[in-house]
Amino acid sequence: MAGKQWEFIKVSDNLDSLFRLDGKVIVITGAAGLLGQMHAEAIAAYGGTPILLDLNFNAVQLLADSLNQKYDINCKGYQVDITDETQVKNNANQVKLDFGCINGLINNAANNPKVETDNSENFSRLENFPINIWEQDIAVGLTGAFNCAKYYGVFISENIDGGSIVNISSDLGLIAPDQRLYADPNKPKHLQSVKPVTYSVVKAGLIGLTRYLATYWAEDGVRCNAMCPGGIENGQPSEFIDKVSNLIPLKRMAKANEYQGTLIWMLSDASSYLNGSIVPVEGGRSVW
């Protein structure tokens, strides 16, 4: 019996460039924050041009100057309130004018309501949570992402080869916060600290927005995916870090730079057939 004849598919000649972002103009909201800075540096390192949006103009200007010097690029920072539709619209037009195109968007900005308390009332608890803080958190995390998709996204859809939108969700968009992490055995129930409700609602909402956008401009080559990062170790008390680490199969929290590889993959041609995916990057926590 003759041996089986194997047919080999030709290997791409461009595997080494799959992850490159050369010539790509990518908007990042909340660029002055810890993850925003990591996103911007990764994009610059892979040849892209990060467009840095934040309320803090001085911070994004300093970041832009640093990246331009280090990577010999021409990135720029803008002061934009993404909850203000007019500001987003005007900035999208300005970026298109300044750079000629927009190839990607990272909806990264979000309020991170803290686990806080005072001696008389814990406002983080659902029964005490102020409606004005609810509205502020939703405005930044969800309305802001909608505004950005509406204006930067439509420019991405006008490109011949489309582009990529990445929504930064969270492991808490997939699972509920474990409120036992914040428990204090010396306090009564009504004073126990909890992770506020808005964080979970916003991050779950971004997953819904991702699925919607994944189909909306698909015929124009625009892909939309969500990354769900886990918690980053960033100076928290060691007792808290230990508690969280015990909930994670890898037994540790993330380093701030451990999301950069996933982000570059999602923005680049290396993930050209990835669309509508919700990608947990949380050490396995949501598996349990």
Written account of the structure:
The protein is 36% helix and 12% strand. With 288 residues, it is of the alpha/beta class. The chain has one domain: NAD(P)-binding Rossmann-like Domain (Rossmann fold, 3-Layer(aba) Sandwich). Helix 4 (131-157) runs parallel beside helix 5. The radius of gyration is 21 Å and the shape is globular. The termini are far apart. The mean pLDDT is 94.
Which labels suit this protein?
seven-stranded parallel sheet; 288 residues; 36% helix; Rossmann fold; 7 strands; alpha/beta; globular
> How many structural domains can be distinguished in the coordinates?
1
Work out the radius of gyration.
21 Å
Task: Record the strand order, biggest sheet.
Answer: 3-2-1-4-5-6-7
Shape verdict: globular
Class, according to the CATH hierarchy?
Alpha Beta
What is the string of helix and strand elements? Answer: EHEHEHEHEHEHHE
Proportion of residues in β-strands: 5-15%
Number of helices: 7
Approximate helicity band? 25-40%
Total beta-strand segments: 7
CATH architecture: 3-Layer(aba) Sandwich
CATH level-4 homologous superfamily? NAD(P)-binding Rossmann-like Domain
Main sheet specs:
7 strands, parallel
Mean pLDDT: 94
Which regions contain 5 or more consecutive residues with pLDDT less than 50? Answer: none
SS content category: alpha/beta
Summarize the structure.
By secondary structure, this protein is of the alpha/beta class.
Walk me through the topology:
Layout: E1 25-28, H1 34-45, E2 49-54, H2 57-71, E3 76-79, H3 85-99, E4 104-107, H4 131-157, E5 163-168, H5 197-216, E6 222-229, H6 238-245, H7 260-267, E7 278-281
Parallel strand pairs: 1-2, 1-4, 2-3, 4-5, 5-6, 6-7
Helix pairs in contact: 1-2, 1-7, 3-4, 4-5
